[in-house]
User: What shape does this take?
Amino acid sequence: MSHSHGVVRHISWVAISFLAIAAPILRGRAKSGAEDLPTADQIVARYIEARGGEAKIRSIRTAIYRGVYREGDFVSPGAAMALMRPYYKLVGDPDKLSFEFREGYDGSAWEYYGNPGIVVRTVGPAAAAARHGLAIDGPLMDYRQKGTTITVLGIEPIAGRPAYRLLVRMRDGFEEEEFVDTETALLVAERKVAPVHAFGKAIASETRFGDYRPVQGVRFAHSDREVEIATGKVLNEMSWTSITVNQEIDPAVFSPPVFTRTPLQRLLDQLYLERTDIQAVLWSYHEFRRVHPAIETDEGIQVIGYQILKMGDHSSAVALLKANASDYPRSSGAAFALGRAHQTAGNLSESRVEFQRALSLDPGNKRAAEALRNLPD
Assistant: This one.
């Protein structure tokens, strides 16, 4: 069973709006082309009018986006996302709920994995990714009420056209730059510095927005393309084939599914909640194994160990996955999971040993082979 590829794709999918821990954007000098620039409020007012006006924008209560997402060779023709006021978000289609994977925001960020059947309330980069893309109105409208500040940095060309360069700083310290076309007053680009994947390094990227079309009197961008600034590499592309607004949506779809936990699923929930306390994690794990010796825990522990690692609790993840690898010495997946935990924690020699062990147990383990190739010498 593969735990990383689907997870990584979904996480980077969220980057359609958003993936992130903020790092300060490297700000160079932008040429204004004029001594006097409009204020942030004047630019935002023009942007609101260009979208269709405040009244029409506020009249939109829900929005469902459906389209095609591309990331390298991966293509998702059924990509979807739903937003609802005041702050609800679902990555997925509210009319066709997935029982394999979902994520969203209902007051806090969450992720659901159908196999092995867990719900995690996220923190760190995953939570930041979710909360930075909640507003139907976008990042500029009502910015003060959202705890955001906007600084006008100047004018810079985007695709050969002048655009106002705005530094947008959110209440949690996350910074991104928004570019508003000086003529059309539409948002045409966004720059940020953030990790692309759960364990990836922060990179500077630029997203271009285009194909604006009216939906019930409000103009929405129907395409975006994110590119790594340093290399020009295309990170992902999104083409919205339809945007449906003001459809009634049950608020429950923005929360994780409710289901009765098996004993193993209860253990995984408990381990995730205890993740900041290594001794509590190990005690719960070993007691469960003692009381339920017939229950196979390997794959479930690999998944929850990954989630603990993703939240930044490296020591607990390493300790838990080490115990799992000891209990399942013939499991290539357990060895790979421990190797990934060591690598994330900076223990490169230990990670190399575990990746090599994973390959010796299963020469066809492509994840271990790739991880071993990518380890620095």
Notes: The chain has two domains: 4-254, 263-374. The longest strand covers residues 202-215. The two ends are 29 Å apart (CA to CA).
